[in-house]
Amino acid sequence: MDWQGAPHALAPLSKLRLGKDLGVLRWIFEFGRHAVFRLLDGIARAALAMLGSGASPRPPGKEPRAGGPIAFVLPVLPDLSHTFVYREVEAILALAPDALVVVLEHGTTRVVHPEAARLLPRARYVPARGVVARACGLFVRFATSPRRVRALAALYRDGPGGAAAALLGKLPLREARHPGRAFELAALLAPLRPAQIHVYGSTWSANVALGAAVLLDVPLSISSYVDFEFDYAHKLLATKFEHARFFRVCTRDCRRRLARMLAREDLATNDIRVPILHWGIDAARLRARSPAPPPRLARENLRLISACRVVRKKGLHLVPPLLAALVRDGIDARWTLAGDGPELARVKSLAHEHGVEARCTFAGPLPNDALLAAIESNDIALLPCVETDDGERDGIPVFLIEAMALGRCVVSTCVSGIPELIEDGANGWLASAEPGALAARIGSILADPVAARAIAEHGRDSALATEDSAASAAALLTRLRAAP
After folding, report:
1. How would residue 107 be classed by pLDDT, with cut points 50, 70 and 90?
2. Residue 62: how many other CB atoms lie within 10 Å
3. Topology of domain 285-467, CATH
4. Is pLDDT at 356 greater than 70 in this prediction?
5. Contact assessment for residue 331 and residue 302, using Cβ atoms and an 8 Å cutoff
6. Residue 373 CA to chain centroid, in angstroms?
7. For 404-424, what is each residue's pLDDT tens digit?
8. pLDDT of 100
9. Which of 17, 55, 161, 167 gets the highest tally of CB atoms within 10 A of its CB?
10. d(Cα 221, Cα 36) in Å, to the nearest integer?
């Protein structure tokens, strides 16, 4: 049961079954914990309602606090899907050693990439306090910063479907992703006196960071992924955009979509409020690698590779029928998939259904060095991305950038920001997200291997020149240090 594994969290009273699960003394203790929590939560709700009554939302401070460090807030560490973020933060720490790295949620991945491992010693995790400790912290905050608490209460009260009381309750004790964790983040940062807060992710992590910025009266800025269209509780996208110094996006397509969502077409070309900074690669490290042999591109034993979190937007369900189409065209194609995720079982089932199971290698998540070696040992890096029915899509997948930088032929689709990286027939290849169209594109590569290798070499040069995480980190830091 939940309460057994997490002593600071509260299970529903219906789970406390006297006799079967609990002795009398333990039942009394658990019942008392619930009673204390209900009392403290009731008092906090009343205090928050009183403070928030008649208050108007106030933005966090606009001027960075003089002399303070920048706090970079990460949603999770370690995690396979956020390696591009860790790479950028590493580069920032090399330029600003006094920067703070604060993490909201402990990751549970078994494979820890080197970027994540190197950040772990610098990371400060927002603690999960107990019932009484959190209540005491809230009451201290109410007493010492009533104006800022009023502003935060008003912000949630005025949000769509919002209520100031949503910041309280038992969920902040359980869930690192709850907006009420803003109080814990503010408590952690307050003695460190940050000049400003920069948060990665525009969804739940930005809610927590916005709340902390309001409570501490320091500026907030946001680096979004392709996440601002997601649906979740207390979305407050317009509020977060309005209160942020800037809202960084990773592609021109993202900026256009954000402008449409906010009904602000002027933002589609606004480099100040919505700067575009790509998520880069460790270009210096890849330049230092010994060049791999160029791709063979033979119809016999053609080697394809994909590496990503296996989710629907990656389009991997298209690969088994693509392999079957290549085989019908007389191409002996083999495919390696490095990664894991909720769509993996479906992809394996489709491989069996299309009779290409023996041509597929499901390698699971690979450490970075092993992944780079795997990419170099294949001919074509394939990621047939799609936009899902609910609008989820990629920005510019880092796997494609890395594969280009390693001199592989890269095949993808005209989705989201991918055409901003790949110019079809110049540094890579694009096709529509259909097995037949992808098979035809691969066939055209094999028809002229010499020209294809030249295109792959141009892709290497363009990726190393334009997609460097150190350059993105420096540009972001420059914006953070600039006058508001």
Report:
1. very high
2. 12
3. Rossmann fold (3.40.50)
4. yes
5. yes
6. 25
7. 999 999 999 999 999 999 999
8. 98
9. 167
10. 38
Angstrom distance (rounded) from CA 235 to CA 266: 22
The answer to whether 92 and 190 have CB atoms below 8 angstroms apart is: no
- Whether 6 shows a pLDDT value over 60: the answer reads no
Beta strand 360-362 with 380-383 is unpaired
The half-sphere exposure of 119 on its side-chain side, counting CA atoms within 13 A, is: 34
Cα separation, 352 vs 349, whole angstroms: 5
CB 178 within 8 A of CB 112: no
For tokens 């396979």, what's the residue?
80
Task: State if pTM tops 0.85.
Answer: yes
Residue-wise pLDDT for 216-246, tens only, equals: 999 999 999 988 888 888 889 999 999 999 9
Q: Which residues pair with 102 in a beta bridge?
A: 73, 124
The correct answer on CATH 3.40.50.2000 for the domain covering 70-280+471-481 is yes
Q: How far is the CA of 308 from the CAs of 201, 303, 322, 340, 364, in angstroms?
A: 19, 17, 18, 8, 10
Buried b (16+ CB within 10 A) or exposed e, 468-477: bbbbbbeebb
What span, in angstroms and rounded, lies between the C-alpha atoms of 77 and 116?
7
